[in-house]
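An instance as discussed:

___
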Amino acid sequence: MAESRRVRKTKVKSPVWARLVVTLGLLVGLAGFGGMAMVGKYFGDLTGGIETGTTSESGAPVEKVSAGKALKGPITLLLLGIDHREGWAANDARADTIIILHISADHDQAYLISLPRDLAVPIPAWSKSGFKGSIMKINAAYEKGAQRGVGWQGGAGLTEKTIKQLAGITFNGVVVIDFSGFKNVITAMGGVHMCVEKNTWSSHYIKNSKGQPEYYSYKGEKPLPNSWIHQKGCRDMAAWEALDYSRQRYGLPNSDYDRQKHQQQLLKSMAKKATSAGVLTNPGKLSEIFKAAGSSLKMDTKGVPRDDFVFSLKSLAAADLITLKTNGGHFAECAYDIGSSCEGITQGTKDMLAAVKTDTLGDFITDNPEYLSIPAA
């Protein structure tokens, strides 16, 4: 890519998990002083709780490849956030967050693209779960792929297949994390500092008789008389509050696009907390955070050994993290009648996803700066 076409912008801090793996890189650097065996064991202990599996429809074992061969050049990962409390094969589990993470070939820029959960698309058939295919909201792909006890591998696999059918993108890996586990990570960090832009009611918590927050299963789109309200202002938040605020969309001016912005704010706040609190230089705290994350992480590394795959992501910490918004941050009319409200996809978004496939997002942003998303402070 010509230098004149590269994106020049203020650097955005990388997600906290990218910074954690860089710290492991520093530990590996100590191996030159005779500590290779110790470092290898420590790294293995940190990543040992991460479950791996294949998201391929056939379920056939993937041929093992080395990270040196598999993670060269551009890297594209699918990140899925699941609100899942009853087990990974639960029929009602849907992908609450769908993010495409693309790292440029020279590994100096990384891009985050959040897909609207209400985006209506053709979801293809998935033989292992018995799903025949249908036009539905994209977040339903996880649910349809996880049927018949297939679990997270089927759910993530069908979501991956749906996006590949939509945009032609082939992923180098898939990462699934459930929100309850993500909350444990924030708890291990001691909470984060967040800013609430306007009073925002929660679709997950109510205020109980003692005035305390209480989780409540609620599927409505309007607040209850006792819905928990996230009050406007900046403050240190406990894990449950920070995560819950970042997941709200009802009642916000830009709905899902505000939710995407607040999730980006949460990642930025986590990174700031990690560095300011000395987490990255505290092996005990680092181990605690990795254990909290590992219990809720699932990965398809496409045949790359788990430890090699995680360690190779260290390039993200040095990359300029650029957050992008689909449809230019505005609602796009749905092209399908699916019996409920849904969202469409603009030609500009199609072009942006095509740029992921060809590793030309820098060129796309230069020509379409309105797709840049600046996280809240």
Notes: Residues 256-276 form the longest helix (21 residues). The two ends are 31 Å apart (CA to CA).
